[in-house]
User: Which sequence fits this backbone?
């Protein structure tokens, strides 16, 4: 089930990449590349850091082509990205992706034998680094550093997963609880427009 | 022959790095570093992703010093970078580098046993990621995402190389065809000022 | 001793990350993440490139949490970052970190059996890439490319270390000389406001 949600999340991440590409006025190749980077940036860094090689998508490139195709479709129907309906749906699909990627990333780190803290960090990285790379490529200060409860929702989900596993829950139950924790906090942040306070002063 | 062209391309990439460094008003160390990153960023990411370790230049650092020296020479003769003659030559040298790096990167990926699609992607990455990192460092939206037929020329060259190999051509002939395909499309784009359409609207 | 100075340097790097985060008006998660990236970006890239896996902090995450905690403390006491006393101290603590990270990074590269030039480059990378990533995340042209004698001080320290080792000095003496060389040049640059000339012209 988490796998299925990861595919939905992948498409949501690819669409968010295409949305950023539209704002930066990129061409069709730029749409495809930013969509791929948004979907796979987090997992790639995780695999590099943990020493998993080659990185996941070298042997299973299907998701890569899904992201690229999503980017290209978004370019072709670009005005559609402005449609109010899609803009309302996108954050919720993205939240599903965030929650699924968090649990998947944590699980993969645990399987390589890392400690719980690094596993949580890898869960957060898997869910957020793609969006961070998307914003760097489009020459923006990354949203994950700046706005809304995003990395924090991933951290809560990953910590819940690790803690419930440690307490002895079977893996599928623990994964579900981690997924629900991340999704609930992120959904609450979207619905209630919660955000963390930012730095008050600007200097120099 | 491809190897020889790769050296020409390396110098062209280093000069394009120095040109970007001049626009961002960097110091001499910045010129050298951006020149190195432009020349080696693509190959480094390719090696990391494929799990080739240590990455290529750790054991063969000659090209690294060539890039750094090129950056330093460009700093010293900086006004020369504006000379009309050089500005006319640069895109053509860069096109040679693009085509050579594409074939080399594809070849290296194939040698590690990846499938054809990943090999093509690695060829494109080898040829384009250096320029992308150059633009990120100099705080620009990367040119490869935004303008002209650049990544597409690399993709055509890599695909031609993989396809002609698959059809049974000997490796040198296939490499030459890939090289010529990438170079021809890129040269046509420069000469005819072709570019892909970009996103029409800008929002938020 | 170098180890102890590396911890001081790590905190100084984390504070410089938090200072950049304050200027970019990030939230508390952004402060923590930029502090971690500033402290560990250089060592992470070094380990990836040399093929050390998993990268150092996966097995020894204590420094990671120190950086994150420093970032969070800086967020809470954010106005404190403006205090004149701290602003005067910071560059000197940062210089200690620069010198310690340079020697450590060079040493780690030598231990993996790289040649002297790559070892020097890895020393420079360990000391400077974290600050470079900090500036890219905060959407600035990286300071290391643009201002002051920073990478050059690291290069001098790493070269001194490698050269004194080659001449036959025992490791602790060589490390101390490398450390002192980097620190002296960087301190002189701070105290005397030395900087390298930047590119004179701006074009396009």
Assistant:
């Amino acid at each position: 089930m988490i796998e299925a949600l990861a595919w939905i999340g992948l498409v949501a991440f690819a669409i968010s990449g295409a949305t950023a590409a539209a704002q930066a006025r990129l061409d069709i190749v730029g749409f495809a590349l930013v969509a791929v980077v948004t979907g796979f940036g987090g997992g790639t860094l995780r695999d590099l850091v943990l020493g998993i090689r080659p990185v996941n998508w070298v042997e299973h490139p299907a998701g890569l082509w899904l992201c690229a195709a999503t980017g290209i479709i978004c370019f072709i129907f670009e005005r559609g990205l402005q449609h109010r309906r899609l803009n309302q749906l996108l954050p919720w699909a993205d939240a599903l992706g965030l929650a699924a990627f968090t649990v998947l990333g944590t699980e993969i780190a645990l399987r390589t034998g890392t400690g719980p803290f690094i596993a949580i960090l890898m869960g957060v990285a898997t869910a957020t680094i793609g969006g961070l790379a998307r914003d760097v490529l489009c020459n923006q200060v990354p949203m994950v550093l700046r706005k809304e409860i995003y990395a924090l929702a991933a951290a809560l989900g990953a910590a819940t997963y690790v803690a419930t596993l440690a307490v002895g829950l079977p893996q599928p139950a623990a994964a579900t609880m981690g997924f629900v924790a991340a999704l609930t906090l992120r959904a609450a942040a979207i619905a209630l427009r919660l955000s963390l306070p930012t730095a008050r002063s600007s200097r120099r």
In short: The two ends of chain C are 50 Å apart (CA to CA). Chain C touches chain A at residues 21-31, 33-34, 44, 48, 53-55, 57-58, 61, 64-65, 75, 78-79, 81-82, 136-139 (CB under 8 Å). The first helix of chain C runs from residue 2 to 23.
